[in-house]
Amino acid sequence: MMKIRVWLLAGLITLVYVACSKKGKNENLKLWYNQPAKQWVEALPVGNGRLGAMVYGDPCHEIIQLNENTFWAGSPNRNDNPESKDALAEIRDLVFEGKYQEAQDLVNEKMISKLSHGSAYQTIGNLKLNFKGNDSIDEYYRELDLDRAIVSSCYMSNGVNYKTEVFASNPDQVIVVQIRADKKQSLNFSLAMDRPSNYNITTTENDELIMNGISNDFEGVKGEVKFQTIVKIVNSGGEISRSDSTLNIAGADVSTIYISTATNFVNYKDISGDEKGKSTSYLQAALEKSYNQIKNDHIKDYQEYFNRVSLDLGVTDSINNPTDVRLVDFAKGNDPQLVALYFQFGRYLLISSSRQGGQPANLQGIWNDHLIPTWDSKYTVNINTEMNYWPSEVTNLSEMNEPLVKMMQELAMTGKQTAQDMYGARGWVLHHNTDIWRINGPVDGAFWGMWPMGGAWLSQHLFEKYLYNGDIEYLKDVYPILKEATRFFLDVLVEEPNHHWMVVCPSVSPENAPYSDHGAAISAGTTMDNQLLFDLFTKTMKAANILDLDKDFVEEVKIVLKKLAPMQIGKWGQLQEWMYDWDNPEDHHRHVSHLYGMFPSNQISPYSTPELFSAVKTSLLSRGDESTGWSMGWKVNLWARLLDGDHALKLITDQLTPSIQPDGKQKGGTYPNLFDAHPPFQIDGNFGCTSGIAEMLMQSHDGVIHLLPALPSSWKNGEIKGLKARGGFNVDIQWENGIVKLATIYSKLGGNCRIRVPNQVRLGNGNELIVASGKNSNPYYEKYDIKEPIISESVQSSELELSQTFVCDIPTNAGETYTLISE
């Protein structure tokens, strides 16, 4: 049995730490541990957007679990239910007659797919390295270096120091493993591969281990995605021998392993690619370069994105503890740097799981070790997929949402047939779930799947991307998607009989039901539906006006927009979830769909809609804090928008609690490797909290850039650099004792920049400093002469108990930087 002797004293750990990696200014950007992973949720992730791996760091029996983001069960297919169109009128009549259960039964019979309910994202398999003679291990240490996107481990065995590095290169499209020893001829190990199903292993005279396989059949759809993985080993010293299914290394000084994987996937309707040719091509190109070249190119490529944002919340002695220990201790309240690490880990995961030209991050990003993961690791678009991309713009990773935009372009194509066949409507529609084959029909059952708003929600990301970047050519490219999503709802909205509002019917408030009145989810005019349509219609109209297009269409949309059901405040002061006042104050459901209007939308504000703002707070307090990981992530953002940083931090603290209990059972929280625990692992919780931390420090949704809007009382001093704000601004903030000491605004596009700050500031413009003073009652953006004084308005609302803030306007020129300095 392997014996690992762990060095627990901080000074001794430092010696091992230096052996594994070079100390430097980014030393705090590391997840580190003093034992190897025993299970998948302790392993450390690497990824290049297309390829992913989970690295266990076991010095005796290493496992590197592999994924490729196009390897899904099944093959191209559709799942529309054509019986839907003829049943719609009867279903709507039942809903408006209050016969909700009968309507739900009919939806299950006539609208839910009778074909595929979506395919499963599948593991490629495992690369296994079995080391000889490592039965006694000293000085063990492993880490994930977020600064360089490299997983490494090191240890001593029989007087020899060993070090392993693993990374996934985007420029070279391979995963690379290098193993070193500080004494010659000390590397002795074998390589093998396996996976749970459908594979064949061979070896070649070129020191290659090759695994070929095919995806599984799924829900009646034949599995036809083929893959090939080539593992190539290049040694310095030693000998390589082989059997039919293993490579054996004896007496090497350094071993470098190249892992190349590809599939026959071309796009959602074409799997005619050559997986063998692609995997061979990737490998051969990588072998033209040295290990150091590949590694340096990988680091340079990754840091182009990662280094855009830095966060400093202060460092305590907790930094000297391993990450899993810090997770256990976090609730004690003396480790703000763990929040910064968790924030940057979310950014690392997005860079590693969603790169240009690839697939969007799915329910687990790209990391999955099963053939049939929980919820198939699909794209659940009633919250989870959207949450994956909440950090993309604000944390300066705009390029990472390109795969989401591409998927929307494809869904808009496949969704046209769904709209026509199921609703007799123009435009395109997506329900609550999709997969790599871009299915659009409702799945899983009426309670979950009869929600035709997936396209409406995803469409928000298209216009939001424009608001951050101001790219007119991009807006021209995506405008047809917005227009056709809007056109669908113009065709399917119906008038409800009581108030004569135009509503979506049938639909649901995602995954919830008004149990105080009845137990069926099927309804009409749910609050979230109305909020989504308000955003879809207004953003489509804005896009059309910016592009000077479709004036008659815009007028048509305006007419319907005025007929949408409004948000309503219910009998106990809550924001109603449904069109009727059915909310139960004892409902602690994980979904808070009706609060979409607060976040991620901007329809509710403390300054412009204080009554609705208060109603959101009442609803959120009633729902409570205890929930699944992704739900806690959403609530962090909501409490940030409610300007309550202490409550937002309380949710982060709830999230940063160990999921794995001493008895081995799991609960919501965080796994040892900082993956979000639903449980099981869902990556949206990580992304939701990263977004929420950014929202606590800077918001730009309410017509202003609000600095430190929800700063917790315990984060007295800190600094964040590189956040992006709507309007094309980059923002740096340095604060002391809870107020802005220094802020820097870079304007990419020019134009007026309105700032809200917790304390008075003055503007430094070159050598000229202009004190913010006076009063401004004009709530709209205006153009100011650059020489005019900056105008500041003190704003305070005693009713909402909001702290005093100051508002100032900065007229900016494109490409220039402006500095705010505290008085």
TrEMBL record:
Pfam families: Glyco_hyd_65N_2 (PF14498), Glyco_hydro_95_C (PF21307), Glyco_hydro_95_cat (PF22124). Residues 31-267 form the Glycosyl hydrolase family 95 N-terminal domain. Residues 699-770 form the Alpha fucosidase A-like C-terminal domain. Residues 290-697 form the Glycosyl hydrolase family 95 catalytic domain. GO terms for biological process: carbohydrate metabolic process. GO terms for molecular function: alpha-L-fucosidase activity. This is Glycoside hydrolase family 95 protein. It comes from Plebeiibacterium marinum. The lineage of its organism: Bacteria, Pseudomonadati, Bacteroidota, Bacteroidia, Marinilabiliales.
